[in-house]
Write a structure and sequence with these properties.
single chain, two-stranded antiparallel ribbon
């Protein structure tokens, strides 16, 4: 039999070597910029700018987050951790909570009014399932989907835009449903020490005592939160899950 894996293997090898080479060249060119001390200096400038321009900085972060989620771009989780790290827990929760809901609503409206045909073609079968579940459980179905991070939010935003669900209902249910997960991820980000602290005290000194406790708590919450939510929803018989093809099912 012909070796069908040969060309694919060679292509993967070429891509790997190209990526490794690009990373190596990039590190060589930016090695002075990527040191902890250099990044700590950049962080200090950024925090100084935020201190002198708090409203503008908050608005920019809000707009970037809403834009990323509204256009269904990857990176929302990293942005959430960054916001928690940079703005702290409480301000970070407020920003991410409203920005993520704003972005989700933008994606919802784009799907409904601009990309209806494309979404219908791509997610037609899932749309049928969503409509059936909304008829049975109403907005609570959306609430359960928002609670479980394993369900891709971009799919929810796109498909829900084609359902009869009202925009206001979609907004407030999403706001409420995503709040718990937002708190967990923002707390995880806020538990990471600043680069300035790492540069001044060293990694060992910065990650000690209370800091380690906070980080440990954050990691536990990140791992346990989806399991707890699933257990609670399963207890009430309201657990949506995703099969291997990403199709919504009901357990």
């Amino acid at each position: 039999m012909p070796d069908t894996n040969g060309p694919k293997s060679r292509l993967k090898l070429v891509l790997f070597l190209t990526l490794a080479g690009a990373i190596g060249v990039g590190y060589f060119l930016l090695r002075d910029v990527l040191t902890l001390e250099a990044m700590a200096e950049q962080e200090a400038r950024l925090r100084d700018f935020q201190e002198h321009n708090p409203i503008f900085s908050y608005f920019v972060a809000f707009a970037v987050y809403a834009g990323v989620t509204g256009l269904s771009l990857p990176g929302a989780t990293v942005l959430t951790l960054f916001v928690g790290w940079f703005f702290g827990f409480w301000r970070g929760v407020v920003l991410v909570s409203f920005a993520s809901t704003t972005g989700a609503t933008i994606a919802f409206l784009l799907s409904r009014y601009l990309f209806r045909d494309a979404v219908q073609s791509r997610f037609g079968e899932r749309l049928e399932k969503f409509n059936k579940m909304l008829e049975r459980d109403g907005a609570f179905y959306l609430f359960t989907l928002r609670l479980i991070p394993a369900v891709p939010f971009f799919v929810i935003n796109a498909v829900m835009g084609l359902t009869p669900l009202k925009t206001w209902t979609y907004w407030w249910v999403s706001q409420l449903g995503m709040l718990a997960g937002t708190c967990v991820y923002v707390y995880a980000g806020s538990s990471v020490p600043s680069l300035q602290k790492l540069a001044e005290e060293g990694v060992g000194a910065a990650f000690s005592g209370t800091q380690l406790t906070r980080l440990g708590t954050a990691f536990v919450l990140l791992g346990v939160f989806p399991l707890v939510v699933r257990w609670i929803l399963r207890y009430f018989g309201k657990v949506p899950s995703v099969d291997t093809e990403g199709k919504e099912m009901k357990r």
